[in-house]
Task: structure prediction
Amino acid sequence: MIQIIDIAYIKNTATAFEIAHEFVGLRALITAEAGTFQSFVRNLFHKVDYQSFVNRTREIKDKIDRLDNNVKLLSPPKAPAAEEFAQALHQYIDALSKAVEIFSNKTKFMAAKAKDPMTPETSYAEFKKIIKDESLSLEECQNIGDKLTILYRKNIGMC
Result:
């Protein structure tokens, strides 16, 4: 079978999906640790380490930045199907980067609020500004990720 898409694009797509799963896992962990009534009751006796969330989010952002640099260094594909795949991968990395950036700002806000609830930059109005585009960004990741998944599954058997 003729290989249309460079194997490096396939590998980088797998890496993008791994990073996205790590991101989703971190979001779920924060909700479990700090975002439910049960976690509130539990946290009366156990302090949430918001700084660790900030650090883990930064690690995910660094992975995305490295991945983005790797993909930008790849030679541009020539076949139309490969171009579509590469474009979807670039869009997915961009969307994931935006979502993680918003989440990074959110975790920084939560850490600042936990450190000192009276800090002026930690008002509810500031929080609303930070998370304003969060849902749209996550939806964009999902939509582009779905498209990339379809293209990935079509092409993974060719490598």
About this structure: The two ends are 8 Å apart (CA to CA).
